[in-house]
Every structure is written in C-alpha cells, then in structure tokens.
Amino acid sequence: TLKSVYVFASGKDINQALSANATIADKLKNLEKDGLINRFTNVSSILIDDSIQQARLNKWANYWTPDKKMQLVNSLAKAGIKYGFKKDAFNKFYQFLDKNFSIINIDSFKTLRNLFLNDMITETGKSTMIMSLIKVSDKNRHAVYTTLSGIDNVVVIDRQEITSGFVKGIKQDFELLVRLCLIFVTLVLILAFGRIETGIIAAVPMFISWLWTLGFMGMFGLTFNIFNIIVCTFVFGLGVDYSILMMRGFIAEYKYGLKDLPSYKISIFLSSFTTLIGVGALLLAKHPSLHSI
Fold first, then answer.
1. pTM of the model
2. How far is CA 260 from CA 5, 56, 75, 271, 272, in A?
3. 33-52 average pLDDT score
4. Are 247 and 253 within 8 A, CB to CB?
5. What is the DSSP code string of 191-259?
6. What is the mean pLDDT of residues 16-33?
7. By C-alpha distance, which of 120, 87, 128, 109 is closest to 6?
C-alpha cells in the first residue's frame, strides 16, 4: 500500500515559493528515477518563478545564434524544395525564432489556477505555500522524509513520522516523569507517615513493581508506546495506593492493636482482581493498538 506524503514549499510571495518548489521538483524527479517514490504531483511543470523563466530565456537566446538560425533556415529551404513545400511554408516558424520572448507574469495563469492549481497553492498576506503530493511505499517513506526535510523553506508532513516523533517524545518525557514521580511520592510518603523509615518501607513495593514491569517488558521484547504508557501510569498509581493501604494496616495494628490487616488485604485483592479482569479483557480486542498494550 502506498503512503501519502505532503511537501510544502514556502516563501514570502508566490515567486519565492515557486523557487523553493522548483528545488523540490528536481529532488522528486531524482527520487522517482532512483525508485524511492512511485509518483508525485507538482505544479512546477506549469507554474515557474521569474528567475527560472529568465534563465531558460537566456539559455534559448544563447543557443539560437544568427549562424544557427541561418543554417536551420537553409536546411529547411532545401528540404522544402525536395519534398514540394512552398517557400513560405515555414515563415511563421522563422518569425518564432526571431521573436523576443519575455517573462510571463504569474497573473496570466489565473484561469488555469482557478481550474486546477488553487487546491495546491495557499496565499496569505505574509506568506505563500505550494503543496506537492508524493506516493511512496512504506519501506522508502523514512528515506524520502529524511531527504526532503533538510531543504530550506520546505516542510514535509508525514503522518506516520509525526506520530513516531510524538511517541518518541512522550517516551522520553515519560521516563523522566517516572523518576520524578518515584522521588516525589517517596517524599510525600515520608511526610505523610512522619518517619523516614516508614515512608521508605511504603515506597519499596512501588520501586520493586516498577523494576518488575521493566524486567518483564525486556523479557518479552515489549517497548513503550502511547497505549502501554497510559496503562503503566494507571498501574503505577494503583501500586502506590496499595502500598499506602498496607502500611496503614500495619501501623494501626502496631500502634492501636487493631486487627484490621485482613480486611485491607481482602480489599486490595478484590481491587487487583477486578482491575486484572477489566484490563485483561482487552486481550480479546482486535484493534492492533490495544494488542500492543
């Protein structure tokens, strides 16, 4: 299945955007020649900025020197006599050769733009953007994205790359968040229980459960993604709650002789059981995102 990648050339006005778009078109032609993209749509075959038009006009004028024109006229005249053409059959072509061409203003393409190209061009008061659409296979998508994203005044929008970058950023922030949470929760437990050793003992199950989680993920080759990160935060919060409940049961029994610890254990067991059943039901889901949890 081919993926769609959108490439935008930007500039302060239409000519600057067209200049950047011409650079994109050259890159896309090379990528298509190398087999990295299957096809692309670009307005450069119709709309060209003033500088490129002038360069092509200069190239045309430099090529058609008077000697070349005379040689072509003589060759056509001899060929015309040989094949029975009238002497004035090529007069319009000769006039075309002698014509002084000038740059075509972008406004001259207004009708054509209204018919075909306005969907690919966005103009505001301060900037202009021209869109190119690329069709590329999934295996070549990243290579194409890397090649085009380094060009000045060019923005590449690939939904999969954006999602991957988003998830990567969340993963990095999540790792930092976990460290901060472990430290913060430990400090809160110490302050809440009023003793350092009690707070640390209450925090130990939290640290062990996190190490178990990382260990099992490493054993089964699982990596963090947006979905299991959400589940991990959920499980992490439950672990903190259970640690606090157990510690309160131990303290109540130690200080006041209350034998309420079994009720705490049953409450935690029932909570864990219902949570396990609820989350475990996702194993039956067919959506690949839920399977990744």
1. 0.49
2. 62, 90, 112, 17, 19
3. 84
4. no
5. HHHS-HHHHHHHHHHHHHHHHHHHHHHHHTT----HHHHHHHHHHHHHHHHHHHHHHHHHHHHHHH---
6. 88
7. 120
